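Researcher: Please predict.
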Amino acid sequence: MAAKKKTKAYAEVGVNIDLADRMKGGLKQSLKSASRPEVLGAVGGFGGLFDLSKSKYKEPVLVSSIDGVGTKLKIAFESGKHKSVGLDIVNHCIDDISVIGAEPLFFLDYLGLGKLEPKVFKQILAGISEACAGANCALIGGETAQLPDMYSKGEYDIAGVIVGIAEKKKMLSGSTIRPGDVVIGLPSSGLHTNGYTLARKVIFDKAKLTLKDKVPGTRQTIEKALMAPHTNYAPLLQPLLAKFNQGTSSKVRKGNGVFGIAHITGGGFTGNIPRILPEKVDVEIETSAWEPLPIFKLIGEKGGIDFDEMYEVFNMGIGMTLVVDGKQADEILEFCHANGCKAVKVGQAIKGTGKVQLKK
């Protein structure tokens, strides 16, 4: 009779190192698409290596950002669908550095969980890999921590770090924005990764809806609406800036058509656009210029949330705003449309004190 294989003590208390090693060992092949020629070595080392010696930039500046997915994770836990989480963590980080005009170079992730579930792990990594490949961004490392005393069964948390590169003289700051400029909005796929604590409270507690219920007036389920991946705007913004910002510096308007970009994340319109506005310039947002996605109407109506707060918390269907030269606004819109983005004019810059004014 064969001897029964002894379970290791660490595995008995909830940390399975052997399983983690097997999972990580199978990553190399699946992560080939999420790489760049500048990457040295392979995923799994103590540090990720990236060679900048062949950079095309004359005065390269590294741009970094870190973020998480927040309570959108609760929807992933309940639905059992986790690929979107991987897409979200990468795309949110890439969008944060894209507003400066930075090109994403490499990404690292941190995954903390109670128990390593291969199916969940593979879905998350599939999302991360797909998002990195879609932005020509290398996944050069990460950390998976099994913490059974920290997380409830089936739960985890995730964070990501992005590093990009920008030409020093061409980095966008919004400093040249002036009255008369036009605000262009790029559509979002949904809530992206913000406002989920409020959204969940309204949808599930107040409205008593479930993930399988339909969003009123649509054929879309609540689950699909809430799990829509965060849009990656870099594939549009990089060629757009290359075409319309050919000036020698972002500190002057001559030769440039885009003067500032704001990622509409936590804080909505009123919290994010002012981050790029000069002290004596306001932005008027014409909220009638686009139709908010149905999921936002559901949250606002069922939650009894007033107009101003909705635009302070959610992106309302616009995930990124560009402040552009009014004379080039139509051409920039045409460029967006030709590249599959249904961008719209959503406002204008006026004299003010660095704030956003919402117009119904």
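Model: Residues 118-134 form the longest helix (17 residues).
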